Amino acid sequence: MKRFIFILFIGFSAGQLHAQHVPLDLKTLINQSFSYFPAFKELDQAVAVENQRIDLAKAAGLPSVAATGSYNYLHPVSVVTIPLGDQVTRLNIMPNNNYKTMVNGSYTLWDFGAVKTVVERAKAGLQYAKDNALYNKNQMAFQVANIYFQIAYLKSAIAIQDSVINFLQFNKRDTEIKFKNGDALKYDVLSIQSTIDQENNRKIDLQNNLSKQYNLMQYATGVQVSKEGTDFNFPAITESSDATGILENAKTGNAEYLLLKDKITLAEAELKMSQIQGKPSLVLNAGTGFANGYVPGINKLRYTYQAGITLNIPIYQGGRIKKQVSLSQGQLLQSKLAQQSLDNTFSRDIAQTLTDVESNKSSLVNANEQIMEAKEAQKFAQSRFRNGTGTNLELTNASTNVQRAELTRLQYQYQLCIATLELARLEGLVYW
């Protein structure tokens, strides 16, 4: 299931977000994906099946009652010869036609906790199914949020492209006037038009990627998101916790850790079930019904009943139980060792993500300063161009620098948002 959902959105970069800052429409889209995506119906059914397994396991400890009916024809049958005077009388002590109807019941009085162990194993399976559903919800929420903020990034990038194109078109008109007055060359007009065409191509690429993200969002949620009026804002970013604190929170809140704990619990239950096999059991048996074959009227049906206790003591089973116990112990050890690997993986990912957060915060400060400087240079170049002291190349370069600075800041904002989203995923925050 994990692989199934990841394949759907393969190629998306990792990301994370703190719960208290999640936009309301993002929460709506995430919850919509839970009810729309077919995989979650399958996961819910898996939970229902595990509940039924618990009921089935408990039923093994309840009394069992069965009704039986049988007919048997026997020949020859035992005959007793009795001499009576000059004659010999032959008496059948059992009939040729045998009839029997019974209602039999049995109840295990003592089984060394076998039924209890099976019930505990079924409960562990139920918890695993629930945590598996939570894990896949976390993954789906992460992917929907990724699409959501990718859309936000692309829409903002398109807005920057529009501002650059508008600026270049405005300067093209000024250059055309200068060309008509003999203050500029045809080359200047063509150069600006070439730059406008390049920026339009970039805008087309961004719009194409945006359309793909809208399609992915609809595929994941079943909702056709409006291309106008939808508020795709970046979340507010709060100060991150230290790596140790995030790892401790992950151990109690992240679904991967919960699943690993469930696997350990399942392995422990399997070990108990292996150890309890081959133990004695004490079973109460009782039955009542009608049967023939009782002298003197052997063909007459008579009421009968029976009751007793059966002690079952397995003696030899070819070493199967011992081998099963050894296998279960190995599986338990494997699950426990997996926790160390998971700790190492999470420690690495948390440290790298915190580094990304701090790096993007620092870069944002510099990017804001660069934008202010680039805009001042752009105004200065535009003024020089209008006054005839500047060149078209100087103006185009100034405009390009503003665009690059704004796109750089947007990229850092996006990367900071994604890094925060990744921290939330690692910590196991339920932000929807």
From TrEMBL:
Main subcellular location of this protein, as a coarse class: membrane
Keyword annotations from UniProtKB, A to Z: Cell outer membrane, Coiled coil, Membrane, Signal, Transmembrane, Transmembrane beta strand, Transport
Highest classification ranks of the organism: Bacteria, Pseudomonadati, Bacteroidota, Cytophagia, Cytophagales
Signal sequence annotation: 1-19
ATP-binding in keyword set: no
UniProt entry tagged with the keyword Coiled coil: yes
Assigned protein family: Belongs to the outer membrane factor (OMF) (TC 1.B.17) family.
Coiled-coil portions: 357-384
Listed name of the protein: TolC family protein
Stored Pfam families: OEP (PF02321)
Subcellular location: Cell outer membrane
InterPro entries assigned: OMP_efflux, TolC-like
